[in-house]
Amino acid sequence: MAIKQPESVLFDSLRGGAALLVLLAHTQQILINPTWMPFSLSGRSHYGWYIYSQLGALGVMVFFVLSGYLIACSIKANIDDSASAAFDWKRYFKARFNRLMPPLAMSQLLILGIFLFLYLSGIALPEFYSTGSELYVAREKIDFKLLDYLGSWLFLNTLFFDVQSPAVNGPLWSVAQEFWFYAIAGFFVLGFSKRWGFALAAATVFIIAIQDNKYFFYGLAVWLSGAAVAVLNKKNREHLRKHRIAAFPLAILLAALWLYMIQFNDDGQVRAKHSYIFGIFFAVLLFVMTNSEKLEVLTKSRLVTCIASVAGYSYTLYLIHFPLLLTIFYISNTIIIGNPFAVATTAMLSGAAIILISRKLAVTFEDRRFFSRLRTSSGLSTS
Questions:
Q1: What residues contact residue 309 under an 8 Å CB cut-off, 6+ apart?
Q2: Counting CB atoms within 10 angstroms of each CB, which of 5, 28, 232, 254 has the fewest?
Q3: Where are the chain's structural domains?
Q4: Tens digit of pLDDT for each residue in 292-305?
């Protein structure tokens, strides 16, 4: 299922934009909230400020939808390229591993280095970084738990055996969930040619289900909505464009439901679920965008192409921004706390620096040929 150039630019711009939203949300949470927090984390907040406080969660839902769409396309291409017209599961999982693991390994080593720095220097202790006047602190203390650290290498965090994401890098929860979305999809498609694939898919779902992690299945529904859009787009495009108007009522209904849930943002249960409704709304919106006659014009705009460039390092940016922001907070908080200009300047410079670092690291670690180049450079190549 080939993706045409305008769609590719659209997906890159959405992925890049989602990464920037997550960076903005966590910069607010870690660096700005101690001095200025215009929303409540427990009581009711104004619509606008509450949505602003949720930009990170909404960005993750955009990632889930795009991931579902692109993996569905990847599976279709995998089958089409196979000489036997069967799913090549080895190639599929190898591609997923090559995509996920090099940046993850780099970020895990970074986490270990940052923890050692924070622990040995003592700057993550409240008596060093806190003045007592902070409105909010993202991590009041940093604990290193070996089970969490090792489990996150294996994508077990927040899903299996009470393994959590490392305290230094909370956003790893979504990386673990996406890995298992990929795995379940791969096992399920494999089942059509090898029955044990269905058994693996069912066993994976069952094991996750008995861990009582309902939010995984909410996320899976969002991911599958993206995959469903890809399947729909496989059909005759002209036919779809004539009938895309039918998607508007569904989009309006989902948007209204999402805004209705936000109205009750002081309810903890609603706060935990509204982003998943937004995710399905975004999937419908993606269907409309990918079937728009104006897509090519839209994707040629300078702003869109600029944001699309972030996609090339969006995964690295997502993996490393949180521990770097925490480190900056612990070092700078006593200097900038209570000074809006200093806080704003630190936040902007930190965001820019993290973007530049991510772009540089991604050249190496987001290269799909990373392992083959590593083998060549180490003399292990068989060629």
A1: 12, 16
A2: 5
A3: 5-39+46-368
A4: 888 888 888 999 99
